[in-house]
Amino acid sequence: MLRDGRLVAFGTETVYGLGGIATSAETVARIFAAKNRPVFNPLISHFPTIEAALHEVIASPISQRLAEAFWPGPLTLILPRHADSRICDLACAGLASVAVRVPAHPVARALLQEVGLPVAAPSANPSGRVSPTSAAHVLAGLEGRIDAVLDMGDCPVGLESTVLDLTGAHPVILRPGAITNDALERVIGPFARREAVPSPEENDAVLRSPGLMSSHYAPSLPLRLNAQDCHENEALLAFGTPFPDAPLIWNLSASGDMVEAAARLYAGLHFLDKTGCAQGLEGIAVMKMSEHGLGQAIMDRLKRAAAPRTRHPGHDASESLT
Ligand code: TXA
Ligand code: MG
């Protein structure tokens, strides 16, 4: 189906992606339309091997080192596009750079190997909503808008890949993710670290990595971060020992384990949003957790989910595609 230019969602170790061949502008246009994603927000292309990924870009010694250290795995590298790259302009949103990644999930790699072409795969959720970590989440958001979903069970990592921009003089993290700052610095030494969440104004002005728009990953219920208690009309996203009086609870990790919390984050947001709305609750209280290591990426997503919802001109992809 992918080779025929159709849209197939599939699991990776991070989240489910909405796959389509990155070499066809028509297919990529249908990805944007299915997600209602603004066309200025470029897509990551996925490959089965390091060689296949680096073939599409102008690699550097640093990118080679990072690829060897972290691929296959949850790291996305932004690199200058090779002149002979087959990835279409629309997948890169017209930029001179391209995002590439080799996912670790063995089924995803086997699929990519079988397809034999770069596969563009943004997270398989409607634009601006919570990313999917199960086939059921994918269908809840996109049923009827995609051709198939390959059910690969729950995603083991549960948070999107770390996006590292290697096109400038120094590496810059555009999106914190499953590969932590410390892990990156062990391989390439100290480098610039982005502020966790830029202001909406800054976001709108810069749009360097448009997926960083502040209101992203948003459930429909509002989030209250670092809550010290849980109100009677709130669901609770707990970490450690939950507040006793919460009417609806999803515990990220009873033992306070960050890896478990990352893996359970999006499933928790999907669950509390759906069940909380059905029970007439009006918000989600989020207990405090560490911002170190994986906690940085978790808190990055929670802050975006809690940010005021912004609208962008041309946000409706069907509008901007016609
Ligand atoms: O874990 C992941 O990365 C998942 C799985 C499916 O691989 N994919 C994913 O894709 O999260 P998406 O489209 O939801 O996020 C891609 C991010 C966006 O923030 C986008 O703006 C950024 O990567 N990006 C892609 N190409 C870029 C480029 N050329 N320059 C800067 N940022 C880019
Ligand atoms: Mg996404």
Automatic annotation (TrEMBL):
It is an enzyme of class 2 (transferase). The keyword Membrane does not apply. Signal peptide: none annotated. Residues 1-179 form the YrdC-like domain. It is found in: Cytoplasm. Its EC number is 2.7.7.87. It catalyses: L-threonine + hydrogencarbonate + ATP = L-threonylcarbamoyladenylate + diphosphate + H2O. PROSITE patterns: YRDC. It comes from the Bacteria. The keyword Repeat does not apply. Keywords: ATP-binding, Cytoplasm, Nucleotide-binding, Nucleotidyltransferase, Transferase, tRNA processing. Belongs to the SUA5 family. Required for the formation of a threonylcarbamoyl group on adenosine at position 37 (t(6)A37) in tRNAs that read codons beginning with adenine. This is Threonylcarbamoyl-AMP synthase. It comes from Sorlinia euscelidii.
